[in-house]
Automatic annotation (TrEMBL):
Tree of life domain: Bacteria
Catalytic activity: adenylyl-molybdopterin + molybdate = Mo-molybdopterin + AMP + H(+)
The protein, known as: Molybdopterin molybdenumtransferase
PANTHER family the record matches: GEPHYRIN, MOLYBDOPTERIN BIOSYNTHESIS PROTEIN
Family note: Belongs to the MoeA family.
The keyword Metal-binding is assigned to this record: yes
UniProt cross-references to InterPro entries, sorted A to Z: MoaB/Mog-like_dom_sf, MoaB/Mog_dom, MoCF_biosynth_CS, MoeA-like, MoeA_C_domain_IV, MoeA_C_domain_IV_sf, MoeA_linker/N, MoeA_linker/N_sf
Gene name linked to the record: moeA
Pfam families in the cross-refs: MoCF_biosynth, MoeA_C, MoeA_N
MoaB/Mog domain location: 183-320
SMART domains: MoCF_biosynth
Length: 412
C-alpha cells in the first residue's frame, strides 16, 4: 500500500527540468587519435581537410573520351589504361581513347566516360553505340564533400556511422569532450559484493554492479568506492571523498525514511538537496542535489528502482553534462495491451513489457509478469517500458498504452 500523499511528489518532467536546467556541459576537451575515439563525444564540429572525392574519377568501367574525337563514326584506338591507383599519364594522341576502370583518375582533357556495355571492341579500335553527354560517368572532385565543409556537428557520439567517415577524410585526430568522472557506492549493512560468501541476512550488491556497467557503457570513468555501511561517519567520509574526485556522485540505498536511511541527511549536511521524492513507480525516493564540487544522485535501494531512476533521470543528466547536444531516449509509441496491467493512480508507472508487431504491423505489448521493485529479471525478459500515466488506474486487456523501447543500456 502507498500511504504517501502523492500530491507532495514532483513529476518526472519537473524533476528532469530541475536537474537539466541547473547543470551546464563540461568545458574541457582533448584531442585524441581516431582509433581510440569510439564512444566519445565531439567537442567541436569536424571539418573536412580535403575534397571528397579528392580528384575526378570514373564511376564506371569503360573508356575515357574527348568529345572532339567522337566526330563521325570511326573507331578510336586505345592509347593506354587508367586503373584505380594507377593513373594514365602518357601523352594522349588525338582520335584515341583511354581504357579506364572504376575509381581511376580521369585523364587530363577527358570529357566523358563511356561504359563498356556501350562499346564494341574491333580490330580498328573501339566503336561507341550510344549518345554521349559531356561529364557522363565522371565523379567530380569535391562532389561529395568540399574541403572545409562541416561533416559532423559538436555534441554527438562517435560510432560506426561517424568514424569511418572521418577515416575516409584522412582525419587522424579528433577533438572530443573529456570523459565524465563518476563516483559510485552502495549503502547497506546487508550488502555483500558478488564473489564473497554470503552470511545470514545478507544479500548481494546488485546496484553498484548495474550502475558501474551502465556508466561504462555511457563512456564515463568510474570511481568505485565499494559498499558503505549504514553509519553516518562512514557515509560522510564516502561523500567527501567522492565529491573531491568526481563530477557526479551516485549512491544507492538509504534514501527513504527508515531508521538506517542517512543519505538524504548527508546531502543536506554536505550540500544542497534539490528534490528527493518523485511521483514515479518504481523509484519514489530519488535524491538529487549538489555537493561542494560534484552533482549528487541518490538512487533508491531496490534494484529495479535504482536501475529505472538511473535510466530515466541520471542518464539524461550525464548526457547533458558530458556535452551531448542531441541525446534522447527512444520515442514513446502506442501499443495495445494484450494482458491486464495492475496499477493504482498517483504515480507515473514504468512497468516492464514485451512488445511485438502483429501481422497487421500494429504494436502489441504484454507484461513481463511480477512488477515488484526487487524483480530484476523483468529487465532481461522485457524489451520496453510500459509507461502508464500518473492518474490512470488498472488497464484491461485491449486498451491502448504507451510503450518506450529500451535503449542500448537495457536492450537484450
Ligand atoms: P533502502 O533504500 O536502503 O532501504 O533499501 C531498499 C531495499 O533495497 C532493501 O530491501 C535493501 O536490502 C535493498 N537494497 C539496497 N541496496 C541494494 C543493493 N545495492 N543491491 C541489492 N539490493 C539492495
Ligand atoms: Mg539500506
Amino acid at each position: 500500500m502507498d500511504h504517501c500523499h502523492t500530491s507532495d511528489l514532483i513529476s518526472l518532467e519537473q524533476a528532469l527540468e530541475k536537474m537539466l536546467s541547473q547543470i551546464a556541459p563540461l568545458q574541457q576537451s582533448e584531442s585524441i587519435a581516431l582509433t581510440s575515439a569510439a564512444g566519445r563525444i565531439t567537442a567541436a564540429p569536424v571539418v573536412s581537410p580535403i575534397d571528397v572525392p579528392p580528384f575526378a574519377n570514373s564511376a564506371m568501367d569503360g573508356y575515357a573520351v574527348r568529345l572532339s574525337d567522337l566526330n563521325g563514326d570511326s573507331p578510336l584506338p586505345v592509347a593506354g589504361k587508367a586503373f584505380a591507383g594507377a593513373p594514365f599519364t602518357d601523352t594522349w594522341p588525338a582520335s584515341t581513347c583511354v581504357r579506364i576502370m572504376t575509381g581511376a583518375p580521369i585523364p587530363a582533357g577527358a570529357d566523358a566516360v563511356i561504359m563498356q556495355e556501350q562499346a564494341e571492341v574491333t580490330e580498328a579500335g573501339v566503336r561507341f553505340n550510344a549518345p554521349v553527354n559531356a561529364g557522363q560517368n565522371i565523379r567530380l572532385a569535391g562532389e561529395d564533400i568540399l574541403r572545409g565543409a562541416s561533416v559532423l556537428p559538436a555534441g554527438i557520439t562517435l560510432g560506426a556511422a561517424q568514424l569511418p567517415l572521418l577515416a575516409s577524410l584522412g582525419v587522424a585526430d579528433v577533438q572530443v569532450m573529456r570523459k565524465l568522472k563518476v563516483a559510485v557506492f552502495s549503502t547497506g549493512d546487508e550488502l555483500q559484493p558478488v564473489g564473497q560468501p554470503r552470511q545470514a541476512g545478507q544479500i548481494y550488491d546488485t546496484n553498484r554492479f548495474a550502475v558501474r556497467l551502465m556508466l561504462e557503457q555511457l563512456g564515463c570513468t568510474v570511481i568505485d568506492l565499494g559498499i558503505i555501511r549504514d553509519n553516518q561517519e562512514a557515509l560522510r567520509a564516502a561523500f567527501i571523498q567522492a565529491d573531491s574526485e568526481a563530477d557526479v556522485v551516485i549512491s544507492s540505498g538509504g534514501v527513504s525514511v527508515g531508521e538506517a536511511d542517512y543519505t538524504k541527511q548527508m546531502l543536506d549536511e554536505l550540500g544542497k538537496v534539490s528534490f528527493w521524492k518523485l511521483a514515479i513507480k518504481p523509484g519514489k525516493p530519488f535524491a538529487f542535489g549538489k555537493l561542494q564540487h560534484a552533482w549528487f544522485c541518490g538512487l533508491p535501494g531496490n534494484p529495479v528502482s535504482a536501475a529505472l531512476t538511473f535510466y530515466q533521470l541520471v542518464q539524461p543528466l550525464l548526457a547533458k553534462l558530458a556535452g551531448h547536444t542531441e541525446w534522447q531516449l527512444p520515442p514513446r509509441l502506442k501499443a495495445r495491451a494484450l494482458t491486464p496491467l495492475k496499477k493504482s493512480p498517483g504515480r507515473l508507472d514504468f512497468q516492464r513489457g514485451i512488445f511485438t508487431s502483429n501481422a497487421q504491423g500494429e504494436l502489441e505489448v504484454s507484461t513481463t509478469g511480477h512488477q515488484g521493485s526487487h524483480v530484476f529479471s523483468s529487465f532481461s525478459q522485457g524489451n520496453c517500458f510500459i509507461v502508464l500515466e500518473r492518474e490512470r488506474g488498472s488497464v484491461a486487456a485491449g486498451e491502448t498504452v504507451e510503450i518506450e523501447p529500451f535503449n542500448a543500456l537495457l536492450r537484450n
